[in-house]
Structures
1.
Amino acid sequence: MRAIFLGPPGAGKGTQAKRARDLFSIPQLSTGDLLRQAVKEESELGLKAKGYMEAGHLVPDEMVIALIVERMQQPDCADGFILDGFPRTEAQAVALERELEERGTPIEAVINFRVDPERLVERLVGRRICPNGHGEYHVRFHPPRAEGRCDVCGAELVHRPDDHEDQIRTRMRAYDQDTAPLIAFYESRGVLHDIGADGDMDGIARRVESALKSVS
Ligand code: AMP
């Protein structure tokens, strides 16, 4: 199964991609996570990407494309993968298509998470993340039991530097301008599945699962 999860920031792609990863036993490749790891390690790529990310701008195409192509070559991707947060521009989509065409392994499904844009800012501003990968919380919609602490490991939850209102607005603009046109791109390839993603997480997960099962 080779799938792309497409949608604006805060649409819940990451959460759903992790659920699908567990269900289909294939890796979830998040360019945001790979870039944040590079920033943490202060690698050459991380140092270059940091400023763009903190401001809410997209990292330049060539950097992200090189990163994901290298990751897709790892042995754990042999049976497929879920791309979460990539591609985000037409240049990235074209580069991905070429790369996969060469390997004879095209994308089989693109899940488009359709959400009410009014709710996205609220979702992102209140989002808090466990630094040890135990998932996401929300100060109002899904608060942890002890304020500011992960329920699973007790670590102090992180408020991402780009989850503040100014940066969120910049990310939304980047989505509207650069990423939203990919909906038509993948529709023209006949692989697009539109999913209403405003409801409860279990209902959304069921719709994602049935879309993915219809092509696998
Ligand atoms: P995310 O975790 O997917 O919200 O990504 C966080 C940030 O990483 C984005 O706001 C961008 O600065 C950068 N980023 C992640 N994926 C991409 C991509 N495909 N193209 C360009 N920048 C990206």
2.
Amino acid sequence: MYIQDKTYLALISREEKDLSMRFYVPTDIYVEKDCVKNHAQNLLAIGKHAFIMTGKTSAKKNGSLNDVIAVLDAGHVPYQVFDQVEENPSTDTVGNAAQQAREFGADYIIGIGGGSAIDAAKAAALLLANPNVLADNLHKAPEKPLNHVPVVAVPTTCGTGSEATPVAIITNHKIHLKKSIPHRIFPALALVDGKYLASAKKTLIINTAVDALSHMVESILNIYSNAFNRMCPEYGLKLWGELKDVLLSDAPIDESLYEKLMLTSTIAGMSIAHTSTTVPHGMSYDLTLNQGTPHGPAVGYFLAGYVDVCEKKVPEDVKRILTLLGLKSTADFSEMLDKLIGKCKVSREMRDQFAAAMKVNRSKLDLVPGGMTPEEVDSIYEKSLTLE
Ligand code: NAP
Ligand code: ZN
């Protein structure tokens, strides 16, 4: 029985739950320099007609698109490129991509880019296999699990870990909603190469690394955390702790660290693949939707407030997180995040609106160890957002 099956979890006691552990990341993941070229055969074995999804420019600039195309050309696999995935991809974009992929006769999808391109590739893979599902209905729970065509993920940011999660976060502008779709789509293959970070500005690396940090912290401060799945965030937080001084310094990031940044992000993805994200992610979506805040900082603004609230509930877990990061206190944790991403300003009206929505967001609140009161939700918003 899968650990995230809530009906099952509701029926068993806490002790039994602790014994009910499963580790499940079915993606074939390679983390190494030149891994697209090195694992060309794995890529070619996935299908016969490839549909490639990327953002507008970065995959062309950082060499990832060329690397994939070189493998497909050498293997005589026909492909079509869709380079219109925007940040925080929309149902419209995903629907258009799936339509083009269908007309092309694609039997698999390769997502190259940050979380946006990979998530869009996952959602398009679902639509491609289910012609009756409309993109506008992607957020509706299906009556039974739906199939999807295989997805290959080539990440070029070091934050979302989407290459190792079953999650796709899609925005439906018609109903003003940014949320994960209720379908589990693990990529079949993930080719993770740190060299694609060479073209990334330090701000992008910091922003996405803060996302990876949040994934690991939220995975531990989570009711689904257990000894088995904790292996990932515990190891990843140690790596993140070793990277933090470089992230905090004004100096450019040495290329020798790119692989470690990517590895940490993939491990952080594996962490949330078992537990899902919790309150800081739930709070971030409104901020991104209403103010266009990039995903990493949008989550990071709420992270210290979440850790503060959880310190009262699960002090040993918070202590462990701080130790792994090489920090002494929650105040140090908060100061570190301030230095990395600064503060976020919103109007009082906006903040009250966000808080009201979060207080009824059971899908995230129910994951907090010991639960979360409306007052605790308010305290996180007060700590995290400054008023204009
Ligand atoms: P992103 O939205 O994919 O990309 C942000 C920007 O970075 C884009 O302008 C992109 O340019 C550029 N970029 C990407 N790689 C680059 C590189 N190597 N060098 C220079 N620029 C580069 O950012 P992200 O933070 O990786 O993804 C955020 C999305 O993922 C959000 O929608 C978030 O909700 C979602 N997410 C998903 C999961 C999951 O498990 N599936 C987890 C957390 C977050 P182009 O547009 O030109 O490519
Ligand atoms: Zn995230």
